[in-house]
Amino acid sequence: MHLNHPDISKVLVTGNQIAEKVSELAGQIDSYYQDKDPLLVGVLKGAVPFVADLSRAMQLSTSQDWMAVSSYGSGTISSGVVRILKDLDTDVTDRHVLIVEDIIDSGLTLSWLTTNLVNRGAASVEVVTLLRKPDAAKVQINVRWVGFDIPNEFVVGYGLDYNERYRSLDGVGVLSPAVYS
Ligand code: PRP
After folding, report:
1. 105 tagged catalytic
2. Ligand 1 atom nearest residue 69's Cα
């Protein structure tokens, strides 16, 4: 679905800008891991398009697995509560894990997830996120690769939803407040 949509009040990142950034990040990640056989851990559901595009832009052969955790509920504000809704199928012991996130907002999800994967005995845990909001700076998380820093607004598209809608937008934009107020 094109970002030029009546419910989008402002375009933040176009599909073309995402494609360019994904290719740049993929090159950096390829060089970083070289022969390390990284396990990409996608965080459902928002990271689905990013994992799909990033892994295909990478030259390294990667394995993929998925986790679903919840921190938001159905509204627009982080609750601070992280629950595992779907766990990994893969044993991450001694694996080089790359968490692939669509967005870091409060940072709660990622802070919890990195600790959780380190505690399972992963050889390394790194993070790539396509988007990062300013509040993420309040939490100490080592994010090795960031696509775009974006303002603190309610954004949708390229995997990000509002009540499960707008995930299929080709870029990222600000959701018009009229939609949720
Ligand atoms: C979003 C996003 C991150 C998390 C970031 O997921 O995909 O996982 O919130 O927020 P935080 O930095 O404040 O913790 P969400 O819970 O909305 O699930 P979804 O990807 O299934 O939409």
Report:
1. yes
2. 16
